[in-house]
Design a protein that fits this description.
296 residues; alpha/beta; Rossmann fold; four-stranded parallel beta sheet; two-stranded antiparallel ribbon; binds adenosine-3'-5'-diphosphate; transferase; Sulfotransferase_dom
Length: 296
């Protein structure tokens, strides 16, 4: 995999104070100029907060729980990733979106201040999913180990520091979750938590349904709960990212559908690391009370 690492592992560069992959940065003016339609819906997350899960739920809600229709293409084609460059065989987010008619469902990891202004001017719906910092960090660590388009994560201890300092791709987790939280009423953002989705997926799927002005029966919601369980999605080739070439997502290191649990952080943080992290967390989150749970 040495050759692949040399080809990929794109470095991060600063875009308006946010570290983004240099490929995203090269394309930044086109991304920023994206014309949203009022009917477009944005699904926004910090990386590894449950984006793919939410995308699958939304697609099934839009198609009345029809599993076959929702296997028409990989997640990244059904719900394009706004700022991402082409990753063969998938075209860039902007190229896919150009060919789609509104209403389009669009994924992004951009912090709120970098979301193209058209989304706000057109009062687009935005579904935001947040995951507790420690599990989010653990998930991102494994992802950065296996995804050769991301910078090398380095050793665990250093990775924790980079997360705390906001030095990972898409920047600070703390600023990301707070940025959307502060604006959620004013901009009509549906703010969801990964932990709530794990605890009671039926309840959270109904919240998404109502936000999208859809009306599905309880039986269909139950079916969507089943179809979007970790176990079922892990085996669904159109939802588990198995189409990404092995030279890009190295399955010998980790898989995209890794564990899907709340509290896996307890297997990684030592008690001392956990205490140090919590003290820093209290400082970084002091100005806004976002009700995260690290265990359920
Ligand atoms: P883990 O690495 O903790 O397993 P994203 O889609 O934002 O990249 O997030 C990926 C994380 O969500 C991974 O977490 C992945 O396993 C988890 N995930 C994906 N589908 C899920 C599902 N249906 N239920 C629970 N977790 C899911």
């Amino acid at each position: 995999n040495k050759a692949a690492s040399a080809l990929y592992r794109f470095p991060l560069v600063d875009v308006q104070g946010i570290p983004l992959s240099n490929r995203i940065a090269q394309n930044w003016s086109s991304t920023w100029a994206f014309c949203a339609d009022p009917s477009d819906v944005l699904i926004s997350t910090y990386p590894k907060a449950g984006t793919t899960w939410t995308q699958e739920i939304v697609d099934l809600l839009l198609h009345n729980g029809d599993a076959e229709i929702c296997r028409r293409a990989p997640t990244a084609v059904r719900i394009p990733f706004l700022e991402i460059n082409s990753l063969p065989p998938i075209p860039s987010g902007l190229d896919l979106l150009k060919k789609m008619k509104p209403p389009r469902f669009i994924k992004t990891h951009l912090p709120i201040q970098l979301v193209p202004e058209g989304f706000w001017e057109n009062k687009c719906k935005v579904i935001y999913v947040a995951r507790n910092a420690k599990d989010n960090l653990v998930s991102y660590y494994h992802f950065d180990r296996m995804n050769l388009t991301q910078p090398e994560p380095g050793p665990w201890e250093e990775y924790v520091q980079k997360f705390m300092k906001g030095k990972l791709a898409w920047g600070s987790w703390y600023d990301h979750v707070k940025g959307y939280w502060k604006e959620k009423e004013k901009r009509n953002i549906l703010y969801l938590f990964y932990e709530d989705m794990k605890e009671n997926p039926h309840r959270e799927i109904v919240r998404i349904m109502l936000y999208l002005d859809l009306s599905l029966s309880d039986d269909i919601i139950d079916k969507i709960v089943e179809l979007t369980s970790f176990k079922v999605m892990k085996d669904n080739p159109m939802a588990n990212y198995s189409f990404i070439p092995k030279a890009v997502f190295d399955p010998s290191v980790s898989t995209f559908m890794r564990k899907g649990e709340v509290g896996d952080w307890t297997n990684y943080f030592t008690p001392a690391q956990s205490q140090m992290f919590d003290e820093d967390y209290a400082r970084q989150m002091a100005d806004v009370d976002v009700p995260f749970r690290t265990l359920i």
